Amino acid sequence: MDRTVRLAVVLAFCMLFVDAAAALSIGVSPGNIDFKDLMRGGYAEDNILVSTSGNETLNITISARDEISSWLVFEPSSLILQPHSTANIQVMIRPPGDIANGVYNGIASVSARPNATSGVAAGAGMTIGVAAAVKIAAEVTDNEIKTLSIKDITVKDVEELHPTEITVMATNTGNVKIRPRIVISIYDQAQENVLKSLEYSDTEILPTSDATMLILIPLDDFKIGQYWVSVMVFLDETAIYSRVLTFDYLERGSLRVKGEFNSISAGAWVQVGDVVKLDASFTNTGQMITTAKAKFEIYLGDALKDVVESEELQVDVAETKNLVAYYKPVVDGRYEIKSVVSYSRKITEEKSTILNVRPIPLPEVQTPVVEQKTDYMPYILMALVVIIIILAAKSFHIRHTRKKTSKE
Amino acid sequence: MAMKEYTRISVVLAFVAIVTLQLATGGPETETATTTVTINNVAPVVGTVTPTSPVVLSEHTTVTVTCSATVNDSNGWEDVSTANGTFYLDSLGGGCTPNNANCYTNASCALSGGSDTTVTATCEYTVQWYAQASTDEGNWNCAITATDTAANDDTNSTTTTVSDLLALDITTPIAFGTMSVGQTSSSDSTDTVTNTGNVRFDINVNGTNMTCDGAESNPIGVTYIRYHHDSGQDYSNMTSLTTNPADTAAGLKTNFDLVEGAASDKLTYWKISIPTGVSGSCTGYSQFEAVKG
Predict the structure, then answer these.
(1) What is the arithmetic mean of pLDDT over B152-181?
(2) Domain A257-358 class?
(3) Mean pLDDT within A306-319
(4) What residue of A is the nearest CA neighbor of B73?
């Protein structure tokens, strides 16, 4: 039988894609990236968030095309994306050193295929794919830009025999590599004497990159107590950022006992004579059960009017308790309630709130009397004064007339 | 005699006046007891609003946008009774009508961390995937209004951006069904492309040859598969699929223009012609690539 004829009678089941109901979805954000002020032979980076709302596990691959395809590197360049999830892809660009100034374009294509092991219908081994193309523009320049943005600086409380940790988070917002110089000075509690100084410049940051610089400072000769640390960041010889922070150098085991004073409340407005509930919310954030008690100092203006305390309550790990005391203001005015919570021989930072105490309003039955006095009394007084003046003038006139008559 | 009489009357009247005056003012005891302090209710002040920036959306689902601000009230943080907020496309103004594309409201923002005269107001919004992108529609604004117990209020706002989300969903596989050698599709097979992001896009398509599992069967060349953006086209008027996405016909590549929105989709139409020399079940691969239009 002729081969063509034989094949003509064989039914060909031709399906281009999967033969079962399925859905593939993918999203990328942003949809385009503009790299501005790129130096020749320089570097820049950005990120693409890949997401899917589908029920399939997807094989994701990222590839570049068009004129800047050889400049682009993706990290990772492939990944498994779980159903209903997102993933971050870093896009790095390195233009060649001999390229002319100008704007160059390319595409980063993020492709998704169902994972073979995911059980997605793939009828007779057929697959379907979706992709999203991120347009990338690169502007090459020869203008050097050197800038650094400090996002945050933190310092940790530490227990004795451990170094303190200073963390500096920064972003190179320019277009050349930079190596910031960080000058650190540790002061005593009074911030009068410098106890230790050091400089750090170990980290080089690429353009557009974030960096987290962890600086460990040994405190072997320090005593238990509170200290202050001054952190100054220099770019070349210019100070671009400075910050003063405090940390505690604690006895061993102290960090296992931790608590947080969440808030204090007293109700904003009350009346003289009302009983006011003072409420301090405290959470045990440590690893051991503790007892806690709140102390409330009640000020009217600058004068301390009273001090009241809550009961001491047991607070389990991760538990939040309201530490309550009561106060009855006898004078109206704007009060300030300051509070601290003491627990396990520790004291939290102070929090405060304002209590506005209004006077007791006059009884309603007295109101008409007061109004009547207010309405007529000035007129009565004025009339009396006028009468007195008239009589006094008359008296003076008579006396004056008599004197004159007697002289004559 | 008359003089003395007048003088006496004057003294008596003066005394009566003084006594009356004392009675009218309540006397010395009342004066010392009525030292009053007037506490005025002052409106709260909303500080700088800090929004999520930029807002990065996720395909066909929601993300949470947070805006927060410190609220100061001279009458104490507890005088701040409520906070509400609006997250909206700046060009619409804060009085916009809530909708998922460009205007979100939160009538009850969280108040937390109160101390002394300050409290933090935090407003959260569940933002849909088709919230309008700043690259197309401009900045968004995050506004927070704080109100105190006397109904005095204050509002502050800060702009932010919503990143574009290029996203698509292919919901319907293409199946050409059972065909004979030499046969051409008599009707269209369709595939639905849904925009599951917030930007309009066109699509590129490309594919591979189809392999067939019949004995000694040849593959079906990718160009035997054809497509069009309109239905009912004759096979000869349709565009052959190739391995290169750059070869995509203008109807899809530049004029597909699938707009963003809560329910935005379009069909594509496909046909195939079965060449000689093939048999069995044939399978292939094709890819739909969204490109921001």
Answers:
(1) 90
(2) mainly beta
(3) 95
(4) A354
